[in-house]
Design goal:
The protein has 264 residues and is α+β, with helices and mostly antiparallel strands. It folds into 2 domains: 140 residues, Uridine Diphospho-n-acetylenolpyruvylglucosamine Reductase, domain 3 (2-Layer Sandwich), CATH 3.30.465; 95 residues, Enolase-like, domain 1. Helix content is 32%, strand content 25%. The mean pLDDT is 96.
């Protein structure tokens, strides 16, 4: 990797100042994506700002909302009795991310900020109508994801927590890559305060997206049968060595039906 300076601020204000004062400085959460990128010399930051000392962890359930600190590990979300009781689909999703090592190092805030097009958490945030809280503002999930590896975060802006409205029904299913366990296609379905929503990850060229046709069909009948006739066009879907765009289009329907069956 290239040379860089390393900083581990003890406060959110210090972290924000370090990132705001250097356009080439990068924040480090769990490092499950960025450290391999550094090792492969695919990035050349001037400084790494480690967020591990900011205390942005913890899970709170109150007022119909599950709030998760940005530096909370996947394994913590997966094992949380509070999350399992309030949004079991979210706990199950966290338990299916990567392998044991990744789940004990990766963080929810890091996953959302990175916005990998095959990551799981973006689908949960979009389907549940989550709000991403930062040091300066609250960003609705519908406005947060702006493209592949791209978000609405500005220079020096750090995710501090994520708020998930508790749905009446929700489930997540994915057809995963057997090696990386990333979603070749993943579908999160939800019905609750944010309405009827279907979010798809792993398939879109621009990253996670909502499936409007499925949402319309499910508004009156939240069941697998309701989307039996709904097709997904392959035009804007990914095609690679793992699956063609046409196969991914087919998988979206198959995985969505499985998620709906699980949601009941």
């Amino acid at each position: 990797m290239y040379d860089f300076t390393y900083q581990k601020p003890g406060s959110l204000a210090d972290a924000v100042a370090a990132l705001s004062g250097d356009a080439d400085a990068k924040a480090l959460a769990g490092g499950m994506t960025y450290i391999p990128v550094l090792k492969q010399r695919l990035a050349k930051p001037s400084a790494i700002i480690d967020l591990a000392g900011l205390g942005l962890t913890g899970i709170t359930v109150a007022g119909g909302t599950v709030t998760i600190g940005a530096m909370t590990k996947h394994a913590t979300v997966a094992g949380s009795a509070e999350v399992k009781a309030a949004i079991p689909a979210l706990a199950a999703l966290a338990g299916g991310i990567g392998d044991e090592a990744v789940r004990h190092r990766g963080t929810i805030g890091g996953s959302l900020a990175n916005n990998d097009p095959a990551a799981d958490y973006p689908a949960a945030a979009l389907a549940l109508g989550a709000t991403i809280k930062t040091n300066t503002r609250s960003i609705p999930a519908d406005e947060f994801f702006t493209g592949m590896f791209s978000t609405a975060l500005e220079q020096g802006e750090i995710i501090t927590a994520v708020e998930f409205p508790i749905p009446s029904k929700a489930a997540y299913e994915k057809f995963r890559n057997p090696a990386s366990r990333y979603a070749i296609v993943g579908v999160f379905v939800a019905q609750g305060p944010a309405g009827t929503r279907v979010a798809v990850t792993g398939a879109g060229q621009g990253g996670v997206f909502r499936h409007a046709a499925m949402e319309a069909a499910l508004a009156a009948d939240f069941s697998p049968a309701a989307i039996a006739g709904v097709k997904t066009a392959p035009d804007d879907l990914n095609g690679d060595i793992h699956a063609s765009s046409e196969y991914r289009a087919h998988l979206v329907g198959v995985i969505a039906k499985r998620a709906l069956a699980k949601a009941g």
